[in-house]
Design a protein that fits this description.
Helix content: 25-40%
CATH superfamily of the largest domain: inorganic pyrophosphatase (n-terminal core)
Number of helices: 12
Order of helices and strands: HEHEEHEEHHHHHEEHHEEHEEH
Strand order of the largest sheet: 6-7-8-9-11-10
CATH topology of the largest domain: inorganic pyrophosphatase (n-terminal core)
Distance between the termini: 37 Å
Oligomer: single chain
Largest sheet: 6 strands, mixed
Number of strands: 11
Radius of gyration: 19 Å
CATH class of the largest domain: Alpha Beta
């Protein structure tokens, strides 16, 4: 397995720090929440005299099983400058309200795996060939400080970004890391069931509606599903209730590229893209100011529903030729 400790010694970087901050991207997913909470618990063990804080937009309740979840700060209050500030699973421009902490911090460290991340902190450890930020983080941690709770958070992050080890970003090393994490007593079956597969009745209804009203195009090789704001309000849904819908679209037989979009403002949509084997959706998303991975990416677009679909279609079609 990979050894990244020569790239970044987390303990040494934080040895004289009195205040340490951690954040991830807006609309945090499993990898973001898992890596942030794993590092949070790790640093509290290593730096017993330091004040450690984690800042995120409100994560989904499914991650409440992770230690430290209740200590996540979601209202982004004013803070004194941090001695060290970590940015996980994204570059600093995607951290939302946390960017004010990053810009004032004395030292900033970025740990990520997105190919679109060019490095925006003082120190950057970015490995696009690794399946998740949680896996990158695992290679950086000293194993003497590992415990069941830290392992559980890392395992959760890996599971979510690899689609329970089925996406193309899963490597033999990913499976070896998962095996090592299981040795800490991680309750892997309940994590997978409760945080990845299990959905509420309302979430299932919304996903069903999106799939039912979806549109196939490009001879059926692409599919798009959309959720408008009025429908979200009708169901009382939050953005955290929309996890996994794009994957259901991608799983339709014959579909190479799936698009899921939901309305976030007037003529504004959050776009999620997934592909099977041909389309590099990171290139599509990057063109519109977003980013991600070869098979999973996202961006924000403006215009009508049809404007967005037409513009995305042009970029997808270039790769489908």
């Amino acid at each position: 397995m990979m050894n990244l400790k020569n790239e970044l010694d987390i303990i040494k970087e934080c040895e004289n720090a009195g205040r340490i901050g951690i954040t991830g991207h807006i609309r945090p997913d499993g990898d973001c929440v898992g890596s942030c909470l794993a590092l949070y618990e790790y640093l509290k063990k290593v730096n017993k005299n330091a004040e450690v804080k984690v800042f995120l937009q409100e994560p989904g309740d499914i991650f409440a099983i992770l230690k430290g979840f209740d200590e996540i700060i979601t209202d982004f209050p004013e803070e004194e400058p941090f001695d060290v500030f970590f940015v996980l699973d994204c570059e600093k421009d995607r951290t939302g309200d946390s960017v004010k902490y990053i810009e004032k911090a004395k030292k900033t460290i970025n740990i990520d795996h997105h190919i679109s991340n060019s490095g925006s902190c003082i120190k950057n450890v970015i490995y696009p060939n690794i399946g998740s930020a949680s896996e990158v983080l695992y290679y950086l941690l000293e194993k003497e400080y590992m415990d069941k709770e830290i392992a559980t958070s890392i395992y959760t992050g890996i599971i979510h970004d690899t689609g329970v080890m089925q996406y193309s970003n899963t490597s033999p090393d990913t499976l070896r890391v998962a095996a090592e994490l299981m040795e800490y007593g991680v309750e892997f079956s309940s994590i997978i069931e409760e945080t990845f597969y299990e959905k509420t009745y309302m979430q299932t209804q919304i996903a069903g509606r999106v799939v039912m009203e979806s549109i196939r195009f490009m001879d059926g090789k692409c599919v798009v599903g959309c959720l408008f704001d009025k429908i979200m309000k009708l169901y009382g849904a939050k953005t955290t209730d929309l996890e996994g819908i794009v994957n259901q679209l991608r799983n339709i037989k014959g579909v190479e590229c799936a698009i899921f979009m939901y309305e976030t403002g007037l003529m504004e949509y959050k776009i999620s893209l997934r592909s099977r084997s041909i389309v590099d959706v990171s290139k599509v998303a990057s063109y519109f100011g977003g980013g991600g991975h070869v098979r999973a990416a996202g961006c924000t677009m403006h215009g009508t529903f049809y404007d967005c679909v037409n513009n995305l279609s042009e970029r997808i079609a270039e790769q489908m030729k």
